[in-house]
Amino acid sequence: MVKMKLVPGPASMELAMKVSSILGLKLTELEHKVFPDGESYFRYAESVKDEEVVIFQGTHPPQDKHIVQLCLLSSGAKDLGAKKVTAVIPYLAYAKQDKRFKEGEVVSIDAVLSILRQSGVDKILTVNVHAPWVIGRSPIPIENVDAIGALATHIAQMCLERPIILAPGKKGEEMCTVAANVLGAEYSTIKTKRDVNTGAVEISLEGVSVEDRDVVVIDDMISTGGTMVKSVRALRSAGARRIVVGCVHAIMVDKADEKILSSGAEAIVATDTVPNKYAFVSVAGLLAERLLRS
C-alpha cells in the first residue's frame, strides 16, 4: 500500500486531484487564505508527523508568489514533524536564467533551488525542466519527467499528412527525436540565436524542407511566444500546409496564444503542468507513476 500525504498547493490543486485519484489516495486537508495585504496563510488540518509529504505546487506566474507559498508549505511540514518532503513542481520557474550571460547577473535557478532546500524540500519532481543541465549541480535531487511523448501521442490523432517534426533551440533535436519516434515522422531543428542584451531571437530554417507538408513545432515552453510566432511565419512562407504547435508548459503571457494562431498555426496542444485552455494532455499519470516508484 502506498503511504504518502498528498498536499494540494493553491497553484496546482487540479493536478493534485488527478494524481490522488490515480493513486487512490485522499488529499490532505489544507486550510489556505490570503490576507488583505496579500500574504498567504496555511494550516495543515491533519497531522503530517513522521509522514512522507508530497506537495503539489507549480511555480508558473505569478512565480514569486507561488515559490513563497511552496516554501511556507515545505517549511511548515518539516516544522510539524514530516519525515520527508517531495515538491511536485510541474513547471519549475527561473530555469531560463541557468548561467551568468553577462557579468554581474544573478543565476536565478541556483538561488531558487537553494531557497527551496533551506525551506525543507528534500526532493523535486518536475516536468521537462527548461535547463536540464542544472540537475547535476542542484542542492536538491531533481527527477525530471519527459512529457514530449505524451504530447506526440495526442498529436498523432490529428491525421497529419507527410508530417515533419521541428523544434527550436539547443534541446530541439532531443525533443524532435522523441516526438518523431511516436509519430513515425521525419524531424529537424529550427536554428535559433538570441541577443543577450535585448533577448530578441533570430530563427533559421536552413536545410529544412516543408513545402506542402504538415508541420509539428514542439517546444518545452511558450512564454511570450516570440520565437514560435517567428517560426510559424517562416514555415508558412516556406510552403507548409498545416502547422500544429505543441508545448509542455503553456505560460502564454500577453496573449501569446492568439499571436501564434493568427500567425498561421492551426492548433496548439499543451499539457496541464500550467492551467491553460490548450491542456489536452495530462501529466498526472506520469507523475503518479514516478511517485509510486520513489
TrEMBL record:
Mg(2+) binds at residue 130. Residues 4-120 form the Ribose-phosphate pyrophosphokinase N-terminal domain. Binds 2 Mg(2+) ions per subunit. GO terms for molecular function: ATP binding; kinase activity; magnesium ion binding; ribose phosphate diphosphokinase activity. This is Ribose-phosphate pyrophosphokinase. It comes from the Archaea. Pfam families: Pribosyltran (PF00156), Pribosyltran_N (PF13793). The lineage of its organism: Archaea, Nitrososphaerota, Candidatus Wolframiiraptoraceae, Candidatus Terraquivivens. The keyword Mitochondrion does not apply. It catalyses: D-ribose 5-phosphate + ATP = 5-phospho-alpha-D-ribose 1-diphosphate + AMP + H(+). CDD domains: PRTases_typeI. GO terms for cellular component: cytoplasm; ribose phosphate diphosphokinase complex. Keywords: ATP-binding, Cytoplasm, Kinase, Magnesium, Metal-binding, Nucleotide biosynthesis, Nucleotide-binding, Transferase. Its cofactor is Mg(2+). Its EC number is 2.7.6.1. HAMAP family: RibP_PPkinase_A (MF_00583_A). It is an enzyme of class 2 (transferase). It is found in: Cytoplasm. InterPro entries: Pribosyltran_N, PRTase-like, PRTase_dom, Rib-P_diPkinase, Rib-P_diPkinase_arc. Residues 147-260 form the Phosphoribosyltransferase domain. Involved in the biosynthesis of the central metabolite phospho-alpha-D-ribosyl-1-pyrophosphate (PRPP) via the transfer of pyrophosphoryl group from ATP to 1-hydroxyl of ribose-5-phosphate (Rib-5-P). The gene is prs. D-ribose 5-phosphate binds at residues 194, 219, 223-227. Belongs to the ribose-phosphate pyrophosphokinase family. Class III (archaeal) subfamily. One of its GO terms (biological process) is purine nucleotide biosynthetic process. ATP binds at residues 37-39. Pathway: Metabolic intermediate biosynthesis; 5-phospho-alpha-D-ribose 1-diphosphate biosynthesis; 5-phospho-alpha-D-ribose 1-diphosphate from D-ribose 5-phosphate (route I): step 1/1.
